[in-house]
Amino acid sequence: MTHKYQVSGITCEGCVSKVKSLLEKIPGVTASTVCLDGKVEVTMSHHVATADLQAALRDYPKYQLVEAPHVAPTATLAVEEVSRTFWETYKPILLIFSYILGATLLVEVAAGAFDWMRWMRHFMAGFFLVFSFFKMLDVPAFAASYSSYDVIARRWLGWGYVYPFIEFSLGALFLLNFNPLVTNSLTFAIMGISTVGVVQSLLAKRQFQCACLGAVFNLPMSKVTLFEDVLMVAMSGAMLLMHL
After folding, report:
1. In this structure, are residues 26 and 48 in contact, taking their beta carbons and an 8 Å threshold?
2. What mean pLDDT comes out for the span 168-176?
3. Cα(237)–Cα(185) distance, integer angstroms
């Protein structure tokens, strides 16, 4: 069973992570989803009283939990949601993708001949270096957001702290053209695991913030996120096969 609540005092991703960890320590609570706007969903194996949830936050007085009011969505909110176009929603990630694509294509133009292997290597280097940069701007916030849907980060929060540096390392390895078999094998495995978490979240139709650009931009989890991960898996898989 899942119940909805509202928690005041949540101001950052660190608050999200703290409230989530406190709630999930309560016997009977199997999972929780905590959002920056204070909306909280708690999944329970058996009924847990609201007083018990409030008691779990007692040591942090700024967090005040109450049951969420049952309010029907207003027409205004519906209009705002519909009026938000695909471009307005995903503008940051589309621009970044375009810059990386354009830069790597210019490298091929400067080389005088298009080489698919070289282009894919440079594209993946740019992808991992740029995306790791945004994650490193606030690693704790990224880790908290990533733990809401990633297969490994859900079980070990430390994976979210390590992941930006793994991405940075992969970018550097692609740029240096270091041992293609090792680099592409690591990429295929890591991005494959990441893809599983994204697919599970999309199938569950739960509202999550995509952590691909860290906590800098509030991007919703969508098929765009899935496309990024699948693209990296496909490219690393293709390059791996070419080197076997």
Report:
1. yes
2. 97
3. 8
Whether the full predicted model's pTM is greater than 0.85, yes or no, is: no
Sign for the pseudo-dihedral over CA of 24, 162, 134, 103: negative
CA 111/CA 87 separation, integer angstroms: 33
Residue 77 placed within a domain: no
Q: Which domain holds residue 43?
A: 2-67
73 found inside a domain: no
- Looking at the fold, whether 48 and 10 belong to one and the same domain comes out as yes
Measured distance CA(203)–CA(20) in Å, rounded: 22
Q: How many helices (H) and strands (E) does the chain have?
A: 9, 6
Q: Report pLDDT for 80.
A: 45
Q: Based on the fold, state whether residues 61 and 167 are members of the same structural domain.
A: no
pLDDT tens per residue, range 39-95: 999 998 888 889 899 999 998 888 999 987 654 444 444 444 455 688 888 888 999
* Bridge partners of residue 65, in order along the sequence: 7
Per the structure, the count of domains in the chain is 2
